[in-house]
Design brief:
Keywords: ATP-binding, Carbohydrate metabolism, Cytoplasm, Kinase, Magnesium, Metal-binding, Nucleotide-binding, Potassium, Transferase. One of its GO terms (biological process) is D-ribose catabolic process. Pathway: Carbohydrate metabolism; D-ribose degradation; D-ribose 5-phosphate from beta-D-ribopyranose: step 2/2. The protein is of the alpha/beta class and 323 residues long. It has 11 helices and 14 strands. It has one domain: UDP-N-acetylmuramoyl-L-alanine:D-glutamate ligase (3-Layer(aba) Sandwich), CATH 3.40.1190.20. Helix content is 34%, strand content 23%. The strands form 3 sheets. An 8-stranded mixed sheet has the order 4-1-9-10-11-12-13-14, with helices on both faces. A 4-stranded mixed sheet has the order 3-2-7-8. β13 and β14 form a beta hairpin. α9 crosses α11. The longest helix is centred in the last third of the chain and has 16 residues.
Length: 323
């Protein structure tokens, strides 16, 4: 099919407001902050972060999202389009504003984030169905829960129907019935989300947790991202582990989105899962090493290849094949 593309992202777009602080406040506590930025347009929601990362890595990427009729939304789409992402399917709400995230970042680069979805509430099951033709033209569909749950789950169903693989980042976590994730190709939670999926306060054994998530939720494959400790996957009934690259983290916002998008793109290009996870770890490491907002921190493919060569690794993302 001549117009087939690689990554379809069905998910949120927001822009961020940032403030830096020495440490994250405890409940009920006020701390002093610096460097407040009220509208950071090189920032996105989980969906548009994933779309930006994949597009910059030369992926043939499309985004189905929603914005308001405001400057923040339109300028964000312009930045995505400039990187080669197809934004022609993005909805516009006459009533709801573009979504926004409020983020506090401490001196170690860790953050807390509160998100108002705004126009992303339009990303319902009907919105997925109205874009059904697009699912058959992409190899991978990336999903998140920053919009309505029914929209993400319907998008996963349509991906399966049309032969595309689906990857769900289950954040922010929502209440799920036991059978709602059945048949999902890949779920990629972080440590907190993995604990919530298993109904525990904290996970002590990530190897066992990855396997248990697959069994409990009837998901084919699970990848748990563990920050500076790397990632653990239960993949096609085998355990896969990759370590993280040692870098000086300055801002971790959007790193999980970069990991998910780059892993999916690597799988599209034919890398095996171990190579795909290692490639994704490199992309995430570069991302957290920059102090700026996610889109400013996401690397080009040449940046990633140079990084891997510098640390003595030979993994390369193959060129786009004739699909």
């Amino acid at each position: 099919m001549p117009d087939q593309r690689e990554i379809l992202v069905f998910g949120s777009h927001v822009y961020g407001s940032y403030i830096h602080c020495e440490r994250i406040p405890r409940p009920g506590e006020t701390v002093a902050g610096t460097g407040y930025h009220p509208m950071v347009l090189d920032d996105g929601g989980k969906g548009s972060n994933q779309a930006m990362c994949a597009a910059r890595l030369t992926g043939r990427t499309s985004l189905v999202s929603a914005i308001g009729t405001d400057r923040g939304g339109e300028e964000g789409l312009a930045l995505l389009s400039a990187e080669g992402c197809d934004v022609s399917r993005v909805l516009r709400s006459p009533d709801l504003p573009t979504g926004v995230s409020l983020a506090a970042i401490d001196r170690t680069g860790m953050s807390i984030i509160i998100t108002d979805p705004g126009a992303n509430l339009m990303l319902t099951a009907d919105a997925a169905k109205s874009n059904e033709a697009a699912f058959g033209r992409h190899m991978f569909c990336l999903l998140q829960f920053e919009g309505p749950k029914d929209g993400a789950l319907e998008a996963a169903r349509l991906a399966r129907k049309h032969g595309a693989r689906s990857m769900l980042t289950p954040g922010p976590m929502v209440a799920l019935n036991k059978d709602e994730l059945e048949g999902l190709d890949i779920i990629i939670p972080n440590e907190t989300e993995a604990a919530e999926l298993l109904g525990v306060e904290e996970i002590s054994d990530y190897r066992a947790a990855a396997r248990e998530i697959c069994a409990r939720w009837d998901v084919t494959n699970t990848i748990i991202t563990c920050g500076s400790r790397g990632a653990v996957a239960w993949w096609e009934n085998a355990l896969i582990e990759v370590s993280a690259f040692k870098v000086n983290a300055k801002n971790t916002i959007g790193a999980g989105d970069a990991f998910a998008a780059s892993c999916a793109l690597a799988l599209c290009r034919g890398l095996d899962i171990s190579q795909a996870l290692r490639f994704a770890a490199a992309v995430a490491a570069i991302s957290v090493s920059a102090a700026g907002a996610p889109w400013a921190s996401y690397p080009s493919l040449n940046n990633v290849h140079d990084f891997l060569a510098h640390v003595g690794e030979t993994i390369r993302l193959p060129p786009i094949s004739d699909l």
